[in-house]
Amino acid sequence: MNRKFLLGGAAALTLLVAVSGTLWYRAHRAPPPLTLYGNVDVREVDLGFRVGGRIASLAVDEGTRVPAGAVLGRLDAKPLQDALAAQTAQLGLAKANEAKFIAGPRPQEVEEARQALAAQQARTDQAEAEYHREQGLAPTGAVSLRQLETARADAKAARAQLDSARAAYDLQRLGYRRDDIAAARAQARAAAATTAKSATDLDDTILRAPEAGIVLTRAREPGAIVQPGETIFTLTIDRPLRVRAYVAEPDLGRVNPGQGVEVTADGNTKTYHGTVAAIAATAEFTPKSVQTENLRADLVYRVRILVSDPDAALHQGQPVTVKLAPSPSGPQKSEQ
Predict the structure, then answer these.
(1) If you ran DSSP here, which 8-state letter would residue 103 be given?
(2) Which domain holds residue 232?
(3) Residue 282 has what pLDDT?
């Protein structure tokens, strides 16, 4: 009896120790790697000329990889070259006019105005003297009333011309007013701005790649007349290569910026490596394009991952699986 009791107690104690050990192990063991699902980001940009015109040449075709700044196409630049030449001439004229107003009249011009004033003064004196003479003869009947009126009119006209000559001389002597100089400067600045715009338009006849990438589509051909902003090429930007994945709210604490990841794609035996770049600050519903083992509408957070070793086998829009190693919780960086 005692033997059976001892054996039963030992078995119960062993079972208790086993259960306690199992519970302790489950409570303290490291969580399994977190698996996320997403897609390679699709980053495309439609490229076109900022000015309209006739396409002179296109340098690349679909599928061509181009570096940043590469020339993709050119418009016929002749019309804009002519416009720039005309604006450059207008700018020269405006600058010459500005310099004229700033420098003021030349000494020769001032002297010319002074002599014109002196000549008009002499003519005025003569006209007034003739009028006074005929006015004195009028009572004697030596001059007619009509002659007297004509002499008076001539004297009055000469006096008006004298006032005009004196005003012209004063303008030459005193120089241009400040508001005249300011107006000339403003006209020169306007001409410079118009010339700069013409130069910019001429430069915009060359279409360059804003970033390195692959030409996805070529929508037009040389000889076509295109409007400003019309799409000529569509460029895919694949460097740096980004993956957009989603983490469920309960697992949010297991994902941190800078955490290393492994990325795999169906039909591709290579395992790619990358890091978590950012985590969205707000939640959203699971996108329909994200395929998980158990599809369900749930709140998730978008995670942006940068792949450090991409190659041509990893295509934009391709579904991928992202595995994250266990990482201690830490502050999360919001996606910008």
Answers:
(1) H
(2) 54-77+205-236
(3) 82
Give backbone dihedrals phi and psi of 30, rounded to 5 degrees, phi first. Answer: -70, 140
- Give the count of domains, the chain: 2
CA distance 130 to 108: 33
* Residue 290: per-residue pLDDT: 54
Question: β-strands 34-40, 319-324: how paired?
Answer: antiparallel
Question: Among 34-43, 96-105, 196-205, 313-322, which range has the highest average pLDDT?
Answer: 196-205
The listed range with the strongest mean pLDDT (2-16, 23-37, 294-308) is 294-308
- Asked whether the CA dihedral 134, 137, 138, 141 is positive or negative, the reply is negative
Residue entry with tokens 């991928």: 320
How far apart, in Å, are the Cα atoms of 39 and each of 280, 298, 331? 16, 18, 25
Close Cβ partners of 248 (under 8 Å, ≥ 6 residues apart): 298, 299, 300
Tokens for 313, please give them.
């086998």
Residues 123 and 170 in one domain: yes
Lowest mean pLDDT, pick from 87-91, 106-110, 146-150: 106-110
Which of 30-34, 191-195, 248-252 has the highest average model confidence (pLDDT)? 191-195
Residue 327, C-beta contacts closer than 8 angstroms, at least 6 positions apart: 254, 255, 256, 259
**What's the one-letter identity of residue 27?**
A
User: Shortest CA distance to 252 belongs to which of 272, 275, 281, 273?
Assistant: 281
Domain check: are 73 and 86 in the same one?
no
Verify that 116 and 193 share a domain, yes or no: yes
Distance CA 23, CA 39 (A): 38
Measuring CA to CA, which residue among 215, 243, 289, 218 is closest to residue 44? 215
| CATH for 68 | 2.40.50.100
Q: Tell me what the mean pLDDT of segment 111-136 comes to.
A: 85
95 and 194, same structural domain? yes
Q: Which two tokens stand for residue 314?
A: 């990893």
d(CA 280, CA 306): 15
